[in-house]
Amino acid sequence: MFFNKFSIMEKLSIFVPNSFLAESKDSKIRTYKVGLIGRYAALFRANNIVIYNDNSDGGSRDDALYMKTILEYMDTPQYLRKQVFPITPELKNVGILPPLRTPHHPATDEANVGDFRKGLTTKRVRKGTMVDIGVGRLALCKEKLSVNKVLSFRIEKLGKEILIEPDEPDSVYWGYDVITSDSNLYDSITMMKNKPDLVIGTSKYAPNINSILDEVQTSIQQANHVAILFGGPYSGINSLINERKLDYEVNTVPKQGTETVRTEEAVASTLAILNILLN
After folding, report:
1. Which of 51, 57, 161, 252 has its CA 20 to 30 A from that of 181?
2. Distance between CA 171 and CA 2 in Å, rounded?
3. Is 175 left (phi over 0), alpha (psi -120 to 50) or beta?
4. 224, 197 in Cβ contact below 8 A?
5. Residues in a beta bridge with 34
6. 76 and 141 assigned to the same domain
7. Are residues 125 and 262 both part of a single domain?
8. pTM to 2 decimal places
9. Given 3-state DSSP classes, what are the helix, strand and coil percentages for the chain, each rounded to the nearest 5?
């Protein structure tokens, strides 16, 4: 079942620190943990996953790039992965990643006029650009496009020649973008091209979201771009950003039964609540 966008919100961005993997040394566990972030982001229709620098001893740019590679691999349709991603040590455990099963990951190579598909631009020709859209043969886009880029297309004609145009659906979820930032959390927010107009921090020290539920719901439903901020294993939101720079700081796991809530668990619980408030 795929969900349409019911609110006016056009963008949802989640912010995760580069120290997310600091406590995980086993390569399979690291891959699996990142896979959970990708799965939850897709499940609750996040448009951006921003990996920021929390300046802790456990965070590193290498870990941020590792996370970006895994997340982008997950978001890429299966029929394009071998062409887009060479075999690297970072990808040796991708077999344990959960599938996204999103609309841009079709389970078949059958296609119809009007369908949208992700495609890899393979070469320029006299007529335009040849594109692999995963239907058994290359399609032609009459525009001159950069080569080796994954873009979205709409099928215009099926026959001897498959004709496509660059386009993306606006009524279904179409995956996420991954952004890595060497800057701190606040600067990572302010430097976004499409700046959020509602910023929500998550913390176990914040008020229970139930106490301000109606207010938060109204703000979310009126926002165009919502940013949800998550801390890491060593640094909570309070130590990363001044609360005056937040529109809300909330606890989405009240009365937690464990000493700590892991980042991936906070992502799942927070986005689940957001999903209810939006719909």
Report:
1. 252
2. 10
3. left
4. yes
5. none
6. no
7. no
8. 0.94
9. 30, 20, 45
Tokens of 74: 């997950």
φ and ψ at residue 7, rounded to 5 degrees: -95, 180
Q: Is 133 found in the same domain as 34?
A: no
Same domain assignment for residues 261 and 194 = yes
Asked if residue 130 and residue 184 are part of one domain, the reply reads: no
Which structure tokens are listed for 94? Answer: 């991708």
| DSSP 3-state of 14 | strand
Among 72, 48, 56, 49, CA closest to 21: 56
Q: Show pLDDT as tens, one digit a residue, over the chain (279 residues).
A: 333 444 567 899 999 999 999 999 999 999 999 999 999 999 999 999 999 999 876 789 999 999 999 999 999 999 999 999 998 999 999 999 999 999 999 999 999 999 999 999 999 999 999 999 999 999 999 999 999 999 999 999 999 999 999 999 998 999 999 999 999 999 999 999 999 999 999 999 999 999 999 999 999 999 999 999 999 998 889 889 988 899 999 999 999 999 999 999 999 999 999 999 988
